[in-house]
Amino acid sequence: MLIIFQNYDGVIYKFHFLIKFTGFRMYVVESRGGAIACMLLALFFLGTWPAILTLLERRGRLPQHTYLDYTITNLLASVIIAFTFGELGHTNDGKPNFIVQLSQNNWPSVLFAMAGGVVLSLGTLSTQYAWAFVGLSVTEVMTSSIAVIIGTTSNYFLDDKINRAEILFPGVACFLIAACLGSLVHTSDAKDNKLKLDKLGLGSNDMVQMVHDRSTGKDLENGSLKVAKAKGGTANFLIEIESRRSIKVFGRSTLIGLALCLFAGICFSLFSPAFNLATNDQWHTLDYGVPYLSVYTAFFCFSCSCFVIGLILNIIFLYRPLFNLPTSSIKAYLSDWDGRGWAFLAGFLCGFGNGLQFMGGQAAGYAAAGAVQAFPLVITFWGMLFFGEYRKSSKRTYGLLVGMLSMFVVAIVVLMASSGHRKHCKNYHYKLTCS
């Protein structure tokens, strides 16, 4: 298929990609252009859903409620993909469809896919709390950079080096530089916010009490702070956010958020290699003649384990919440419809984003698919547009922010340029026959 885009200057861009469908095969993305198209769309989806969850948390919705809603539609997205792309076309021994694969003896690959879902769920849960401590943009910059540095390197060797190393690893280095700049952005922005709050002349205890009074609707005794909507980037704006949000962070160490980012980044670096092993069986765990898991079957198993872990942990967190959040219950969750539609939308975006990422990775190499980890570019845009991040910050913060985003732009271009082409292999007595 050929897609042609023309911009406002009249420049025409042509994208060739191939999605095959015959009487004997399911839909499969096979060309480099199609893989890049999948990754670009995934980049937008994966950069949008965190902003939606952050919006709900800043409006005061409990993160446990939000995540339970999110995880339902995240699973539903994988079901939709499995029963559409994974079922279209007739099955055969080499490329069985989704339903056929569910009954085959492919448990080693299924377990790899489910392990990937477990670590993704743990990482997502961690970032949901890290957003409150260190901000939406910096959290995603640090976690995605760690994921690329570890995960992309692992996938390069798992994929038998189908990506061009001379292009791939400079792209990984750009992510490493972006991660360092991200931590500097956070440090500089935290200093800027502290200076803004210090100008109010209130101590940390007074600040916490002020936030408590606003969140409980009490009248303010100190007339220097206005109840009216504050302008973005001001001290009053920071206090207004803190008073509304569900996770209170004033008076807490930002090291908590950085630790959560580190843990989440390590989790995110593991899920893509696990998925790679599930779909390509590089460790030869499948029995003779058992077909490899298709992307769609593996993604379904991946999403099921992600759903189960998220469901169990968040039900526990309803009754034993973290960070002094109020306790809740299943009954309270079921009756909380405020923002539920947005949480459902976030789950769909994440689910389809991950599915597109894996479809592109299967075609062009999972190392190149690490380019979607540049989604903090999209997140930073939403953070600045809707959440007032970095407004009225110092020149140093702006300079570091521009440097961080520039490194991400370079990284995504370089990683996509390293895309290779995967050979199609069949499992014959552990000796792979590839074409």
With strands numbered from the N-terminus, the spatial order across the biggest sheet is: 1-2
Computed CA radius of gyration, to the nearest angstrom: 23 Å
Q: What structural class do the secondary elements suggest?
A: mainly alpha
The major sheet is characterized as: 2 strands, antiparallel
Tally of DSSP β-strands: 6
Q: Roughly what percent helix?
A: 55-70%
Mean pLDDT across every amino acid position: 79
- SSE run: EEEEHHHHHHHHHHHHHHHEE
* C-alpha termini separation: 22 Å
Q: In DSSP terms, counting alpha (H) and pi (I) runs of 4 or more, how many helices? A: 15
| Gross geometry | globular
Q: Approximately what portion of the residues adopt beta-strand conformation? A: 5-15%
Unreliably modeled segments: 1-25, 218-228, 428-433
Please give a quick description of this structure.
The chain has 15 helices and 6 strands. The protein is mostly helical and 435 residues long. Strand 3 (19-22) and strand 4 (25-29) form a beta hairpin.
What are the main properties of this structure?
435 residues, mainly alpha, 15 helices, 65% helix, 6% strand, disordered C terminus
Question: How would you describe what is shown here?
Answer:
- This protein has 435 residues and is mainly alpha-helical.
- It contains 15 helices and six strands.
- Residues 1-25, 218-228 and 428-433 have low confidence and may be disordered.
- A hairpin with a 2-residue loop joins β5 and β6 (431-434).
What topology emerges from the helices and strands here?
Elements: E1 2-6, E2 12-16, E3 19-22, E4 25-29, H1 32-58, H2 63-84, H3 98-102, H4 107-134, H5 136-158, H6 165-198, H7 204-215, H8 235-244, H9 255-280, H10 295-319, H11 330-335, H12 340-364, H13 366-369, H14 376-386, H15 395-417, E5 425-428, E6 431-434
Antiparallel strand pairs: 1-2, 3-4, 5-6
